[in-house]
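Box 3.1 — From sequence to structure: Methylthioribose-1-phosphate isomerase
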Amino acid sequence: MVSQPLFPTLAPTIEWRDGDLLLLDQTRLPLEIVVEHVADAASVWRAIHELRVRGAPAIGVAAGYGLCVAMQDARELSLAQFRSELERRAAWLDTARPTAVNLSWSLKRMLRRARECNAQDSALLYDALVDEARRIHEEDIALCEGIGVHGMPLIRPGDGVLTHCNAGALATTGLGTATAPIYAAHRAGIAFKVFADETRPLLQSARLTAFELQQAGVDVTLIMDGAAASMMSQGLVDLIIVGTDRVAANGDFANKIGTLGLAIAARHYDIPFYVACPSSTLDFHTATGAQIEIEERRDTEVTHLAGQRIAPQGIKARNPAFDVTPHALVTGFITERGIVRAPFERSLKSLFAAEGNAA
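Predicted structure (token representation):
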């Protein structure tokens, strides 16, 4: 399946073409547009782990197709052997990144489809897996559209909208999550400004969000992470929309490091703070944010920039990729079915009780 790119100069984030998985390498943006052909399980794992494909929804889509790629060499096995290998390889792919729930959600859904499928041989079971991966892909595009529809009314003419990291089209296979209301408002002709935090240490907002919004013709200004509170104090920010990699049952959520500080500053300056949240990112099995595993990445991402050391040799560094924001700081969750407000534990479950992560 091929999703329609928002920008004619960009390839789709993820493409499934005649049994081949093609990923836009986001570590090369914005300087190069490189599409990688992912041909085996190890390559899928590395692409997710090394952030060549990133963003919770995109990781979920990549995981579905990736499991299909991982099983292509097993189609000649007996059905029992195929099922055994499927479970083993899915468990291994699930170790690529720990925080974004979409990875495990997608793989569990693929395994559930396999268990429920009455295919007579391994080749037919593989075809069923490809069909399920395509469904995950199609649903991701629709989820983004729904978030755009419900979030667009939050953006008024003249508003300053601040976003953090990349929860854009590049993090999904559609309009993005946090950017979906932005793109919808832009297409509706609403005049507003976007402030994009650079997002240290990997600069996803500088490299990706600012790039894609500029390509789409949105009025976007790149700012340092540390400048966000100052922009709020000057009255330049009227609305904050961020994405999320996992939402716990009580509404606590994990997102790119620095999100917690934004939420605290937003509360101080009385600025609405919204989280764009597709249902695939809800995790009702995790009671609160305290139980969310936070990925710690290499210290060299902090001590080096573009391959050059910027910190003293031998200095200790910490590099948590995400932080957890408590639900009390959230104004609302923008979902594909509407905006959810407190009390979140009750309202999220009432709207999404039948979803896979709530089972």
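Summary of the box: The radius of gyration is 20 Å.
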